[in-house]
């Protein structure tokens, strides 16, 4: 024994290369299968339905053929502002998301009280009044008597006419 | 917090009724116009400051009649706590929690408890 260590240079043998290749191949197969299974089973479960939902469609009418008059007037849907009367429920619409100004009195110079939102429903309590080229109605929110003011009819759609 | 959950929901467009069968056996029949009148979104309630967990008493007195605003187009579940209704006028902001829906039940028994 000389007492000295002699380090042999590391050399890749063909057997080691083949073994490494086999191990790598197995890892790829296992991880690939795992990934496939993960995605196939939809990793993010959708919200389970709480209740069974059934929608029964409205009946579709099958009108019988009727003779068409030569000059039949085509009824058009009620334009905004049409058909409004005291007691009716109206909905704000057509403001493009900007809201409708409800004012302290009829007219564009009257004090602005608040903005009504699109789709908001009000009951008509007073009017009509003409001012600044608009027809004005006094509206009151059905759930909040304090939320009330005058609004231009151009941005109101009638939901229902007053009950007799 | 109430534990009522719907078991079956039927949207009957023929009769314009929204029917909920609850897990405690109760059955609620809501006219479409009531659901729209009680839409809980900030827009319909007149702002966030007016929103509440339970419907306002006035909605039971509102009769909106038949219009695209009171016809249901679709119903979507929201998480596990409620649903949203898509109306034929395009409005779909309101989230009706189970608690809100149950409090909105218009039957005489539920109304007498309010």
Molecular structure report:
The complex is a heterodimer of chains A (164) and B (114). With 164 residues, chain A is α+β, with helices and mostly antiparallel strands. Chain A has a domain at 89-160: SH3 Domains (SH3 type barrels). Chain A is built from one helix and eight strands, in the order H-E-E-E-E-E-E-E-E. Chain A has one helix spanning 14-40; strands at 52-56, 89-92, 100-103, 112-116, 121-131, 134-141, 144-152, 156-160. Chain A has a five-stranded antiparallel beta sheet, with no helix packed on it. A two-stranded antiparallel sheet of chain A has the order 3-4. In chain A, strand 6 and strand 7 (144-152) form a beta hairpin. Chain A is elongated, with a radius of gyration of 38 Å. Chain A starts with 13 loop residues before the first helix and ends with a strand. Chain B is of the alpha+beta class and 114 residues long. Chain B has a single domain (6-113), classed as 2-Layer Sandwich (NE0471 N-terminal domain-like), CATH 3.30.2020. Helix content of chain B is 19%, strand content 30%. Chain B is built from four helices and six strands, in the order E-E-E-H-H-E-E-E-H-H. Chain B has helices at residues 32-37, 42-45, 98-103, 108-113, and strands at residues 6-12, 17-22, 27-31, 72-78, 82-87, 95-97. In chain B, the strands form two sheets. In chain B, strands 1-2-3 form a three-stranded antiparallel beta sheet. In chain B, strand 4 (72-78) and strand 5 form a beta hairpin. The longest helix of chain B is centred in the N-terminal third of the chain and has 6 residues, at 32-37. Chain B is globular and about 35 Å long. The two termini of chain B are 16 Å apart. The A-B interface holds A 47-59, 89, 91, 93, 116-121, 123, 141-144, 147, 157, 159-161, 163 and B 5-14, 20-21, 36-37, 39, 41-47, 50, 56, 58-59, 61-65, 67, 69-71, 74-75, 77, 79-80, 89, 91, 93. Strand 1 (52-56) of chain A pairs parallel with strand 1 (6-12) of chain B, so a sheet runs across the interface.
């Amino acid at each position: 024994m000389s007492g000295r260590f002699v380090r042999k240079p590391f050399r890749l043998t063909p057997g080691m290369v083949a073994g490494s290749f086999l191990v790598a191949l197995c890892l790829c197969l296992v991880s690939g299968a795992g990934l496939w299974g993960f995605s196939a089973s939809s990793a993010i479960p959708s919200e389970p339905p709480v209740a069974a939902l059934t929608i029964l469609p409205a009946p579709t009418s099958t009108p019988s053929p009727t003779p068409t008059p030569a000059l039949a007037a085509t009824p058009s849907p009620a334009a905004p502002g049409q058909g409004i009367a005291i007691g009716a429920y109206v909905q704000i619409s057509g403001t493009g998301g900007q809201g409708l100004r409800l004012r302290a009195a009829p007219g564009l110079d009257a004090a602005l009280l608040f903005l009504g939102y699109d789709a908001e429903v009000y009951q008509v309590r007073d009017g009509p009044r003409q001012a600044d080229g608009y027809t004005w109605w006094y509206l009151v929110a059905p759930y909040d008597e304090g939320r009330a003011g005058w609004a231009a009819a151009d941005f109101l759609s009638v939901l229902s006419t007053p009950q007799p | 917090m109430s534990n009522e959950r719907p078991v079956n929901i039927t949207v009957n467009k023929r009769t314009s009724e929204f029917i909920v069968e609850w897990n405690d056996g109760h059955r609620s029949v809501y006219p479409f116009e009531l659901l729209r009148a009680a839409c809980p979104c900030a827009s319909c309630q007149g702002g966030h400051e007016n929103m509440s967990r339970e419907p306002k008493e006035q909605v039971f007195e509102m009769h909106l009649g038949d219009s695209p605003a009171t016809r249901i187009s679709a119903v979507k579940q929201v998480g596990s706590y409620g649903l949203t209704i898509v109306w034929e006028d395009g409005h779909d902001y309101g989230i009706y929690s189970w608690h809100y829906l149950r409090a909105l039940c218009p039957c005489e028994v539920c109304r007498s408890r309010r």
